[in-house]
Amino acid sequence: MANNQHIFIAGDEAHKRPEVDRLSLTIVSLAWRNLWRNKRRTWLTVAGVAFAVWLLIFGRSAQEGTFMTMVDNGARMMTGHMQVQHVGYKEDPSIENTVNLGNLIESIRIVPGVDHVSARAQGFALVSQGERSFGAQILGVDPEAEGQWSTLKGMLAQGRYPSAPGEAMIGATLARNLALDVGSEMIVLGTALQGGVAAMSVQISGIFDATQPELNRSLVVVHLDDFREALAMSRNEAHTIVVVAEDVAASDRALEIIREKIDPNTQALLGWRDLMPEVEQMMDMKSVSTEVIFLVLAIIVTFSVVNTFMMVVFERTPEFGVLQAIGMQLKYLRWQLQIEAFMLSALGIAVGFGLSWALILGVGDEGLPAPIPEDAEAFYARFNMGTHIMLTFDWQAFRTASWVFLIGIQLGALLPGWRLRKLRPVDAIRQET
Amino acid sequence: MSIKLLFQLSIRNILRHRRRNLMLFSAIAVAVAGVSSANTLIRGMQYDMLNSAVENLTGHIKIHAPGYRDDPNIDKGFSLEDGFTLPVEPEEMLGWAARIRIPAVIMSERETRGVQIVGIDPASEHISFLSDVPIDGEGLTDSKDGRILIGKELALQLETRIGRRIVIITQGIDGKNREKGYRIVGTYDAEGKTLEKIYVFTGLASLQSLLDSRDVTEVSIRLHEEPKKPSIKDMLSEVFRNLAVLDWQELEPMAAAMYLFADGAIYIWFLLMMSALIFGLINTLITSVMERVRELGLVRALGMPKRMVVTQVVLESTIIMAIGVLIGLVAGYLIYLSIADGINLDAFAEGMEMMTMSTRFIPVLIWDDFVLVAVMSLILGVMASIYPAWRAVRVKPLDAMGR
After folding, report:
1. Residues of A in contact with B291 (CB under 8 A)
2. What is the ipTM of this complex?
3. I need a labelling partner for A119 at 20 to 30 A (CA). Which of A362, A416, B351, B358 fits?
C-alpha cells in the first residue's frame, strides 16, 4: 500500500517536474514488481518469447551455415570463389573468348583473403579410344596450383592427380564408357583457335569418382600446357582465372579489390553468386520461406503475450479500481502495462539471445552434425553440403527478431490497456477474483 | 457424475473468459492455418518433384538390360518381339514407351556438344515431358522419322536453328562409330535448360537402322498412381527375369531423397509452430485453474473425485484446442483455395531446377495431412493440460475454501 500512497501524492501534483520523475520511477518499479507477482506465468511467457527468438536465430544461423558450406565446397571442387573471364565468355563460352593474363595472376594473389590463383583453359571436344568416342568437357589446368586446393584430387578412385604435361585425369563414368584404365592412351579431338583441328594424345594418370554425376560423365582434366599447344593458344592466354579465397566471407571482401585490377572493357569478374546462380536462388527461396515462418511465429507469440495481459488485467481489476479511486490517472495505468510488456519482451529476447549464443558456442568449430536420413548421402553430396552444419551467430536474424517481438508485444499490450477505459472504480473494486 | 456434466463444466469455464480465450483460439488458429497451408505447399513440392522425376523420360518403372546403366550403349539393349504388349492392365497405366537412349556427339558448323540421342515412337510419348512442352517448328511424325528434334538451349549453344543440318556421331551395335547428318525439324522448350541440353530426339526405327540393330535400350512405364507401383514392379520383375526392372527412386535417387525430406518437413514445421504455441496454452490453463481454486476446493469437498477434476481440466484444454484447430483448418483450407492455381517461381528457375522442380508451383491438398495436424494438435492439447491438471488436483479443499 506504500506504493499507492506515493502515486496518490505524485499523481495529484504531476505538474511539478521532480515529482514527475518520481512518478515515472514509481511506475517502472510497480511494473517490475507486478511482473514478479506471478513468477510462473512470467517465466512461461518469457520462455515463449525466448523460444521463438532462439528458433529464428538458430534457424537462420543453420541455414547460413549450410549455404556457406555449399558455396565453399562447390568453389573448391570446380569453380573457385571468383573467376576472371573474357567479358563475353559467360554468355558465349567459345574458345575464342580468351583473357590476356598479363600479370593479373600475380596481382590478384597479393589481395588479402585470396589463397590461390591460377589460369585455366577449357573447351568441348571429342575424346576417343579405339572405336569409341564421347563428347567431353576438357579442362586445362595448372596441376601444381590446383592440386593445392581442388577437392577433385581427393576424389580420385584410381591412380594419381596429373603432374606433368601429357597426363590427364577423367571421370569414372567416362572412363567406363570408353573402357579406359589408368595408364591408357586417349585421343582428344576438338577445334583449335583459328578453326583448325586441335588434337592431343594424353595418358590417363588418374580416374576420379566425384559426387556430381555430370563431372563423372563428362569431365577430362588435362595439363594447361597441352591444352594451349593443341588449341594454338599463347602462353599469355586463358579462358578463366580461378581465384580461391580463404572462405566465402573473405571472397566477398576480396571481390571489390580485384575488380579494381581488371580491365572492365575486356575482362569480367564473376563472384560465387554468378558462378553458382542456383545456390543463390535456393538461398533466396529459403529466405522467403523463413520470412513466412517468422511472420507466423511472431503472430502466435504476440497473441500468447496479449492473452497473458488479458489475464493480468482481469486479475488486477479490483486493484486498478482502487488506484483510480484514489486518483491515479488512466494513462499511468496504461503506461504501467506498456512498461511491463517491454520488460517481458526484453527478458524474452535476452534469454533467447543467451540460449542461441550458448548453443552456437557449444557447437563450436566442429559444427552440428547434419540430420542425414538414410540413403541421402548422395543427396547431400550432390548439393555440396557437408556432414556438419557450421553455425555462425546471425546478427541480422537477432536484430529482426528483437524488433518484431518488441513492437508486436508493445502493440499487443495496447489492447488490454484500451479495455481499461471501461473501468469504473466502484464496480472494479467489488469484482471478485 | 457423468462425462456430460464435466463437459458442461468445461464449456462454461471456457465461456467465462470469452475474450481471453478468443486470443487463445486465434493463436491456435494461426498456427494450425500456417501449418496446414504450408503442408499443401510442401506436398505440392513433393508431387512436383515426383512428376518431374517421372516425366524426364524415367517413368514410374523402367526396364533396362543389366549393365546398361554402367555402359549405356546399344550393345546393352534388348529386343521386343513384333506386336509386343506390356503385361500390365491398360487401366492401371497412362502408357508405356520403348526407346533407344545412348550418348552421342552432336556437331553443327560451329560447335560440338555431347548429348543423349533418344529414338522414340512419337505416338507413345504422351507419357513423357515431350508431350507437354511447346515445340517451335514441327515435332517428329512417326517412328521412321529420320529428322531430329533438339532443345532450344542446345540450338543456341550450337549456333544453329530449325531447318539447318547437324551431324550426329554415335556408336553402332558393332562398336564402330556411325556418323549421320540430320535436319533439325524443331526445337522444344522444356521447363529447365538441363533437359534441353541433354536430349535430342529422332524416330526409333530410323535410329535402329543407323545402329544396325533391332533392339531398344529401355521400356518406360508411366502409371496413374504411385501407390500401385510396388506390386506392378514385382510382377514385371517376374516376367522380365533377364532384365533389370527399376523404379524411379532407384533411377533418380536425388529426387527420391528430396521426396523423403518433404515427409519429414511436415512434422518439423508442425513441431516448431506448436512449441511456440504451447507456452501460451499452459499459461492460460494454469491461470484458469488458479482462478478457480476456491471452486475446485468446494467441489472436492462436496465429493468430486480427483480424476474428475483432472478430466475436467484436460477436457477444457482439449475443447480449446479443438475449437482453435477447427478455425485454423478452415482458414488453412481457404488459404489453400486462394493459391490453388499455383504460384509462379520463375525468379528462382535455376534453383528450382537444381531441386528437380518446375517453376510453376501448385499446392496439393491431402486430407490425411489435415487429419494428422488435427490429431497431433489434440494430443498436444492433452499434454499441455498435464501440469495444470496436476495443480488442480493438488488443491486442498480446506485451504482453498479458507482463502
Report:
1. 315, 433
2. 0.71
3. B351
